Amino acid sequence: MEASMLLCKLIIFLAFLGVVMSTTWGEDNLINPSKLQMFVDDLPDMPKLKGFDFENGVPVPKSLKIGMFRKKWKFHRDLPPTPVFAYGTSKRTATIPGPTIEALNQVDTYVTWRNHLPKKHILPWDPTIPTAMPTNKRGVPTVVHLHGAIGEPQSDGHAESWFTARFEEKGPTWTKKKYHYYNHQQPGNLWYHDHAMGLTRVNILAGLLGAYIIRDLKIEAPLGLPHGDEFDRPLVVFDRGFRTDGSLYMNSTGDNPSIHPQWQPEYFGDAIIVNGKAWPRMIVRRRKYRFRIINASNARFFKFFFTNGLGFIHVGSDSAYHERPVMLKEILLAPSEIADVIVDFSESKSDSVILGNNASYPYPSGDPVNEANSKVMKFLVKQQHEVDSGRVPEELIKYPSADLSGASETRYIAMYEYTSDIDEPTHLYLNGKSYEKPVTETPKVGTTEVWNVINLTEDNHPLHIHLGLFVVLDQTELVDLDKFKECMLKMNDAIKCQISKYARGKRLKVLAHEKGWKNVYKMTPGFVTKILVRFSYIHSNASYSFDATAEPGYVYHCHILDHEDNVMMRPMKLIK
Description:
Blueprint: H1 2-21, E1 48-50, E2 52-55, E3 58-73, E4 82-88, E5 98-104, E6 109-115, E7 144-147, E8 178-181, E9 188-194, H2 200-206, E10 209-215, H3 217-220, E11 232-240, E12 271-274, E13 277-278, E14 281-286, E15 288-295, E16 302-306, E17 312-317, E18 320-328, E19 330-333, E20 338-344, E21 352-357, E22 375-385, E23 407-419, E24 425-430, E25 448-455, E26 461-465, E27 469-477, H4 481-491, H5 499-502, E28 507-508, E29 520-523, E30 527-534, E31 554-558, H6 561-564, E32 569-572
Parallel strand pairs: 1-5, 3-6, 5-10, 11-15, 14-22, 23-25
Antiparallel strand pairs: 2-3, 3-4, 6-8, 7-9, 9-10, 11-12, 12-13, 15-20, 16-19, 16-21, 17-18, 17-20, 21-22, 23-24, 25-30, 26-29, 26-31, 27-28, 27-30, 31-32
């Protein structure tokens, strides 16, 4: 059965090959980043969409209609317009990233996501990996996942709930056109992005991503943090490569072309994009600003720092506030992680400062940064000093601490990478299972579980669990790793392979700003990372306001998109 499916996909690929080779995909024609002057474009503020209305002064639910469009986008002053896919309420207003959706706690938002994309993709893709595939071979499958949402399975953006233009074709787990976002969770930062099976990396690369904020004014206003459009800004950061004609670069040949003609294990581009502009600049006043920094890259980790020694006041991680702010000089963010920070430019000793990056790629053992990808953006600091009424309180928001005694289940989640005869990656699995194998993770609604995540690869993998929030408890090195890995490749059973015998090396400290509730965490290679996962709200004892046991369920996966697509993702089904 699997062989026949692979043969079918290869035939489809050959049909597409003529198209691929007749375009610039067959050549690189990459633009040298040094040809693009840095810090010449102003940082855009993305359009805002309110996910609520007011009736008689009271916020009420609202329905939005957001489309996906093919258009051209100007990433840099000196770069020709780039064909992209973009979210927006119309083709004219569509942007990269898409509009920032602002929601209110306890006020429902409804979104009808409409696919207006063309019959063919603007980027090469690989049908030999598990991929959303319309039967008529036409149209770009898409589905939207609200990352960090605590919501119903039908609106989670399941990878197989994809649809093409005008809902002409739909994936096997598609349920409805209008998504329902309850917004009953704690206030914090989320983001929405494409999640179609096997196409997530190319659809997001094409531009399908945007920020989503849930606010709770009763809780947040007393904190006194910087607020308002001028002083509270999402920064959506990602890397891209471009050709000389302005088009996005995506490799057309894989590392194992006889197995996967196009797929490669990581995508990296040298141009660093913030809010849709390459290396932008922002004029700031000498006062505090709040930046909600989202790493929306396919595979690139960022280690952010200011070149003049300015610091970050870290107030939230992913979708939850900290109990107390944390002062930092640098922040390591994996793909899909979010850092909610305050920066006080009144403390700047210079009139300009660059937000830099020094994370190797792939992280942690890849190439060092270069002149292009070591710069993110520049802040131009006004000389005039001013009175700043904004503050950062000593205490923020306290949520329940991790309680191991209440855990109802202990699971072992192993990360594997498989290679070819030429020692190039062919695919990655969680627990040694491909995505379509029967579900093995079935948490009970309202419970907490201990997950021991065993990274048997050389890469750091940001693990994302849909629906659940978790706290990192400890990170322990595996000794005699090769021997343990050999056993795991044979047995695929941590208990039978006596993990306790090997998980006794050095321990990594969980950093202060990563001790709170998260939905993504960086799994260190050669370590076991123990997390406590909660399948209930953290801000109240209320039950979910939806049926979390409904179809099509949820997933958990590595958020390096190239890994997720092939196919470091597993289904998860909640039970009562």
